[in-house]
Amino acid sequence: MFNKLIPLSLIVILSACGATQAPPYQKDRNPEDRNEYSGVDGLTQQQKDQAYLMNKELSDKCTKARIELAIAETDNNVSEVKNQKSIISSTCI
Hints:
Shape: rod-shaped
Distance between the termini: 69 Å
Radius of gyration: 26 Å
Order of helices and strands: HHH
Number of strands: 0
Largest sheet: none
Number of helices: 3
Helix content: over 70%
Strand content: under 5%
């Protein structure tokens, strides 16, 4: 009888642990605001979020460089035009 109680107790304990587990990631937050990931689904989402954030950073740099290029062209600042074109070639896809 004692041998039958141990497996049953383990099942109850393990079931209770699974019931209190946190969600795999914070679905209600934007990728920029997520800071908690757990489990396989959380790890997958973390990788997606990191890829998104890297692409967003490049896109933001590209946009800023295009604005700065327009300003440099308006001001006839040749060296800044060259600098911004270099940034654009490395960040804009």
